[in-house]
Amino acid sequence: MAARSIVYRHYQRVLAQWPVDVLRPQISFQDVMRRRIDKQFGPSEADNSSYNPSQESADTLATPLKPSNENAELEQVNVLYSFLENRYAKKVGPGQILYKHGN
Questions:
Q1: pTM (predicted TM-score)
Q2: Which of 33, 45, 62, 94 is most buried, judging by how many CB atoms fall within 10 Å of its CB?
Q3: DSSP characters over 20-75
């Protein structure tokens, strides 16, 4: 249970920092991911202030799914953090394109 809450908090933290897409404001990555993690982990008692069950359909409010693997979920959160922090551009550098040299 504690591991789930840690993963859930990491997801909430990264989504709070995620930039808004100005080109597609009607489609929010944050909203899609929040629905996914709420469905995966279920809304916690502490998060009831931000959770509005009237926005969800009846089938979504069914029993929450069990997380398949906390380590896999933490790896996914780490990928979101890496995109948020722009680690790949910092590692490669701006304007550099990597090509795989084939035979």
A1: 0.61
A2: 33
A3: P-SS-TTS-HHHHHHHHHHHHH---GGGTTT--GGGS-TTTTSSPPPPS-HHHHHH
